[in-house]
Amino acid sequence: MSGKTRVDNSEYENRVFEVTKMILSGYSKRAFLIQHISNTTNWNVCNRQIDNYIKDAKELIKESFSKDDLELEKSMALNRLEGLYTMNLKIQDYNQCRSLIMDRAKLLGILSERLTLEGGLEIKNKQDYSNYSTEDLEKLAEITKKYEPKDK
Predict the structure, then answer these.
(1) How many CB atoms lie under 10 A from the CB of residue 21?
(2) Which long-range contacts (CB under 8 A, 24 or more apart) does 24-33 make?
(3) Residue 152: is its pLDDT beyond 50?
(4) What angle do CA 112, 107, 79 make, to 5 degrees?
(5) What whole-number distance in Å separates Cα of residue 60 and Cα of residue 52?
(6) Three-state DSSP class for 123?
(7) Which one, of 65, 139, 78, 134, lies nearest residue 109 by Cα?
């Protein structure tokens, strides 16, 4: 086995935890994780074993969030977007307002190729709001608020 030894469960869990931290820190690509682990640890493992660590780390990440946690995160993100929208509207950065409206619509799951909303505002392209007035953008922001999930 070319010098590779089997680790006990405790060490395996420690390694999975380390890989989990790497993934949560932004090291999400397999090739980069393999290179990083090979260069920064003395684990002396093959790529297949690193794949096992990655798989278990991703499973650990999935299990760490409940549905309530995800709803809380969604609510926090919506509130942050609302605050950013308000700040950008005050400084008349309409391009950023447009971008924030799109982010909000994506988060709420109401973005489609073509939307016809209340008040007669029609959106034909999900990325181009350059022809819309400030009034229309504000109307769209108000309409998207109606589709937010209600707190339980």
Answers:
(1) 11
(2) 24/61, 30/54
(3) no
(4) 140
(5) 12
(6) strand
(7) 78
Output the six-digit token pair for 91: 């400084």
Axis-axis angle for helices 94-108, 134-146 (nearest 10): 20
Residue-level pLDDT at 28: 81
Structure tokens at 8: 């006990």
Measured distance CA(142)–CA(147) in Å, rounded: 10
DSSP character for 132?
S
Long-range contacts: 35-44, Cβ < 8 Å, 24+? Answer: 43/15, 44/3, 44/4, 44/5
Tell me the per-residue pLDDT of 74-119, one tens digit each, with 9 for 90 and over. Answer: 889 999 999 999 999 999 999 999 999 988 888 887 765 445 555 5
Query: Nearest-CA neighbor of 7 among 52, 63, 55, 64?
Result: 52
Q: Taking Cα atoms as reference points, which of 72, 70, 96, 73 lies closest to residue 141?
A: 96
